[in-house]
Amino acid sequence: MSEFIFIFFAGIALTTGLSYVGFSLFKNGKREELFFGLFSSCAGIYYILNGIDAVPDIITIVFATAMFILFPWYLAYEAKFIKKTFLFGISALGVGYFLSVLVYDFFNMPNLPYFFSYSVYLLTSIYCIGCIRSIIKRSDIPLWPFIFVTGYYIFFTIEEVINNSFAIELPWRKLFDFNYLDLFPIIIIAFKLTLLIYDHWLKTTLQKEVDVYKNNINTILNQTTKYVLSLDVNGSIVFMNPYFKDIFETDTPLIGLRLNELITKETIPVFREEVFKNDNFNGDVVCKLKTAKGISTIAWSYVKLRSNTLGQNQRYITLFGTDISPQIETEGQLRKAYDQLEFLKNKLQAENIQLRNDSSAINNYGHLIGNSPNFNYVLNRVADVAELDVPVLLEGETGVGKELIANAIHLKSLRKDKPFIKVNCAAIPFDLMESELFGFEKGAFTGADRLKLGMFELAHKGTIFLDEIGELPLAVQPKLLRALQEGEIQRLGAEKVIKVDVRVLAATNNNLQDEVEQGRFRSDLYYRINVFPITLPPLRKRKADIALLVEAFCDEFAQKYAKEIKHISKSLMDDLVAYSWPGNIRQLRNIIERAVITSSESVLKLANPLPSEINLSMNANPLGEIMELGTFEKFETNYITQVLVHSNWKISGKDGAARILDLPPSTLRSKMKKLGISAS
Q: What is the pLDDT, as a whole number, of residue 45?
């Protein structure tokens, strides 16, 4: 090989090698570039030494050996197929080859260098094949340069073995004045150049794809109706799309401005806490922006990103926002509409209750009927208290018309044009009593899916009639006392109290004083409702009124059922007047209604004989037993027991005790449980 070519190769190899060594050590630290630089530098020195005849062969062998040791290391890092045990083995054999060259004459072992050199050839060839297999499925590096280099290496090693072992010189050596080793470094440099060209082509292709992607992204960002902006870690705007800028209608540059300057003061802490202090990678936050058209509520979704630009690792926060001001306004309108609907619904409920109460008063009794002294006394008491805004307690047996008297008090009061709400405390389950009287908030308990106004709120500015107040649970009595004394109630599940202006009328057929003594009724509540008591006489003490009531009920039901009842026999009227009426007016009304329905002529006839009378005196009973004087509860217990025995302990039905007592079967069962009455 001519001296000029050696110098040319030396210049290429040495320049390339030193450049890569320096670039690797002081710039990027890549191992493949370091080993390639060392390989090329050794090749350059080999070319220089090979052109100088005065240089001993052993020095040239040093750099030739170094090339063969460095080649597999470079190839391993270039292919990302690093097996250090294998590589160190090749390196050790290479060092062994150099040492064997120094000592084989001394030990008279001429074949020893061949053993080490052939071992290096074999292991390096195997390693080259392993590198090829590792990159077959990779797209970031071309396969064919590795195949070419491996093929060349295997070819010249086989040629070397044939030439050294069998003294056979292949034809191509006669054509050129250089051998395989002279070309090997240039082949490796060309291999590296090929990889660089491919890498540049790949990056160019990727850059074009990135540019297309960026153009598409920019088009999307420019045309989207979402707000998009990026912030640095200090909260300064580094990017915004035109849609975000347009809402401010300003020519002032917003890039570099802190977003806090655009957010309303009250939402800055929430935004800062959620976006900047929160360790979440992404999340959602709502804030208000000061736009050109006023305050807008923006719902943001954010994601935190890292960018490595020019070797600097920087953090950015990208936000995507939507103006939800219209939805919030619509939601507010819907909430107002819902509240208005609830108000109207509750108002309608109150009006329905009032209409039902008025209708009940008219249909059941029409007007107050009676001229007896006892009844006139009640009417006088009603006239005395009606216009006074004080609680009234109506006492008397069941069926004497306490509800009718309560309605009369309301109609004669200053609240007559306001609601009159009736509540039967005995008909409401204990666990629902509080919610019925005072209402509940939405979500106060399972199933409370809407706001419900209580009876006290429905009766605001009017009158509430608490029938059977003696059945009111002890747990609810303090709240009723608060409503009476303070004019305040509190819905279930509510924190605030509600002022109400309600007149309370109460009724009972129990002796509340006994209830107080036995701890079933609060004494303070009793004294609060007992400001003006009115005791209604039973029908047996209003004998003079029975004929009037019979005629009134007869006319009412005759008209209702299209009957022509014109006469009531004197004997029937005498029987009706003489009867004791344990169920009072309610029992009388029911019997007359049944008689009108079953009468086929113009003369009123009873459908059934009057029920057997139960002696109500305190001295005797139907069983001939002597009843001792005692408390009202004891009397009530004995009385109900006598009726049950008379009906053979049958509670409901035609001949049941509930029918005789003119009570709902459920109320009778409740009283039996309360008083401890049972058939056993």
A: 87
